[in-house]
Automatic annotation (TrEMBL), chains A, B:
It comes from the Bacteria. The modification N6-(pyridoxal phosphate)lysine is found at K145. It comes from Micromonospora rhizosphaerae. This is Threonine synthase. One of its GO terms (molecular function) is threonine synthase activity. Its EC number is 4.2.3.1. CDD domains: Thr-synth_1. It holds the Pfam family PALP.
Length: 449, 449
């Protein structure tokens, strides 16, 4: 597998800033390695190793860090142990960097969301193999972000942080604010000023600080990268900045669950929405890890990973289509705001996973996204947010173009809840009839044949 | 226990109409009594017995019917059997009227929702014993209605119905439309014309028929009572009309789950929102049943049942406060639309349960409801719809008035999701700061101390 190049230019400068910050944090890691299988942070680009602290970029090459584990500890985990665990993501605690002791968790106990059989959707798309929707809108704040936040904040607490923060396109904001409320901890959440009302209110209602920024998500993210260096934010864990390596691990539980829910099998094809690209890489990684540690058998033909973006923010898919190894940042537009990251931090790794597994990427325009939301709802009873509409629209395109094999088992990931982006379809759907409360009115409206 | 009087006047006329209708339905019950513990429908008022068909009122006295069980079959159910079951309400299938065979279920697999410890809420209210929030917003369409709909539609399919319908204040509409979409069945849902947009869109998006009625919920309900008698609706199960006895049983799973989640114990006090009053009576009934069949020990001091209404629709609480045995219907007003049933079908039974157990009822004004939503969110990370705000506001009042014992374990029920009634708090919460994306702007806004 080719090692992606370290980030260049502006990205490199941004990371250097974050590196300086780490020196102001508690010197000693609080991750309890007698319980946690995590052993180090390791650079995804150059493999340099660091202690389990609040650091997310490599001192050597500025590459992103990820958590490295004691493989013997992971290999000792059994299916029975997992199945006997709690009915949430903490059943996989023995595979996560923190939270083995339930008393240390900062969590809404997300996970173990439904894997929904979608035969009617399959039939409409001409898919003849089993098709499943992994419905992460069933999490406590109704997006997959509850997974990453639970792992990030649990690690953050172990590392000594007392205030919780994030840069967010909305779902992460909801989740961080709700987690902080449950834990009785202060939070400060940064969002672009133009978010959907559903995501603003659902953050603000939890009572923490909520800072709307006149700018894009990338502007918000840049500001958080600066704030995290200040003395005033020394006590503050930004889930997707200074504790990002732990945060990213939470996404792996989506892959673990799909495999467990399929009876400890990996599906032949997965279709995953991409914002930073991290979710896609972590689900792929979860599958690899399950095979490596012997919890599932490697499927005969491997698995193919497909990525979904919106036409308004498609830098990763564009790189794939143009056979490039460089992600060119874009200024995002369009209704799929939760995917609107124009400078995707894990884009190169998502490209690598899709190329390595023989998958593909596509992107969907706003009207296709709306149609995707409605198609999914009508055929499965799952009402997805715009990101889910993107994924279903891309699924359709992948079938039509022949990139996705209609005779192979497929799982599509719905990462969020339609109620949060209700404006996307509000103009398109509504009552089919409007009548007075009488039998005569019902008859006149054609309701009685 | 006194037997409530059968309904009088207009209610009696309405029921007679429904009785006529039953003759047009399939004559043979399809409930498989070799699997189901249900044996008959029995009148709650006069104890007359009927076969397991689509009938909901007594031919003798017009009283409402409920499902009667083979008590020996119920008593054979063990904790181990339940605990080994699926991670949803079907773990209690052996206690329900239908759905024992998984292939017969019409369901989104709701249930087993979180029982959330609420120490910060308890502290704010001066409650010193454990306080829990049973958070039914975690169900697939984010309200407790998924429970009753799953049981009703599974029974309806067994009884030969092929189209699914309801009269709804919103949550039920969402659930019936989503269940029908998952099952690939047609649906027709009737709602008052002034519902929250969140509930209209979340119903319409599933693609069934959605009929908005110029009138109140009670008008909608009356029209459905007429439609169900027509030839054109012979194939149609109205979950809360002609299959209501089965529907109501679904609510009992909330009581079963609370007991199981507490380690097979019944809490000393429960606070439950009331619309028709049915949910309250069924949770109380679930507790009684668990004791009767030996799955839990009767708690030393029994349990007290408390009911919560809004000031805009408080006919049951008003009857209690005025020591009356008659529910005087009201014309509902106020923001708690999911509770706005002015002529509550189970009101007398709710009164009976509250009086028998030594509980109480209160009601909350719109501003108190909004404050209740925010208090719950801020202290627990649970964002409730207005009905949950009602319940928390009433919890506060019950503590303040001394009706609820602050040293006794208490469970409050949140039956729905804040995202569906976002307008209730949208004007009150929002960003605490709005800045440009720069450190200087953050400093000027006071974010750096």
């Amino acid at each position: 597998m080719p090692i992606p190049s370290p980030p260049q230019g502006a990205m490199r400068g941004k990371m250097r800033g974050l590196l300086d910050m780490t020196s102001t944090l508690p010197a000693t890691s609080g991750i309890d390695t007698t319980l946690s299988p995590a052993r180090a942070l390791v650079c995804r680009a150059c493999s340099a190793r660091y202690p389990l602290a609040a650091q997310h970029a490599c001192y050597e090459c500025f590459g992103p860090l990820e958590v490295d584990y004691d493989t013997a500890a992971l290999a000792a985990v059994t299916r029975e142990q997992i199945e006997a665990g709690p009915k949430n993501l903490w059943r996989y605690a023995a595979l996560l960097p923190a939270g083995q002791d339930p008393a240390t968790r900062v969590t809404l106990n997300p996970g173990l969301t439904p894997l929904v059989a979608a035969p009617h959707l399959a039939a409409e798309l001409g898919i003849t193999a089993p098709l499943w929707v992994k419905d992460d809108s069933a999490n406590p704040t109704h997006s997959f972000k509850d997974r990453v936040v639970s792992v990030a904040l649990t690690a953050a607490r172990a590392l000594g942080f007392t205030r919780f923060a994030c840069a967010s396109t909305g779902n992460l904001a909801n989740s961080v604010a709700a987690h902080a409320a449950r834990a009785g901890a202060p939070s400060v959440v940064f969002i672009p000023g133009d978010l959907e009302q559903g995501k603003v209110v659902t953050t603000a209602v939890y009572g923490g600080e909520l800072v709307a920024i006149d700018g894009s998500y990338d502007d918000v993210n840049r500001l958080c990268g600066e704030l995290v260096e200040t003395d005033e934010f020394e006590d503050t864990a930004f889930v997707n900045v200074n504790v990002r390596p732990y945060y990213a691990e939470g996404s792996k539980t989506l892959g673990y669950e799909v495999a467990e829910q399929l009876g400890w099998r990996i599906p032949a094809q997965v279709v995953i929405p991409m914002a930073s690209g991290e979710l896609l890489t972590k689900i792929d990684r979860a599958f690899s890890e399950l095979v490596e540690i012997g919890l599932v058998e490697a499927p005969a033909g491997g698995w193919k990973v497909f990525g979904a973006q919106s036409a308004g923010c498609n830098p990763i898919a564009t790189a794939l289509h143009s056979e490039s190894d460089t992600i060119t940042p874009v200024k995002p537009t369009g209704i799929a705001k939760s995917l609107n990251i124009g400078d995707p931090a894990a884009g190169l790794y998502a490209l690598e996973a899709v190329r390595r597994t023989g998958g593909w990427m596509e992107y969907a325009a706003d009207d296709e996204i709306r149609a995707g939301i409605r198609l999914l709802a009508r055929t499965t009873g799952v009402f997805a947010e715009t990101a889910g509409g993107v994924t279903v629209a891309v699924l359709r395109k992948l079938v039509e173009s022949g990139r996705l094999e209609p005779t192979a088992e497929t799982v599509v990931f719905n990462t969020g809840e339609g109620l949060k982006t209700i404006d996307a379809v509000a103009a398109q759907v509504g009552p089919t009839h409007r009548i007075k409360p009488s039998l005569r009115a019902a008859r006149d409206a054609g309701l009685l044949g």
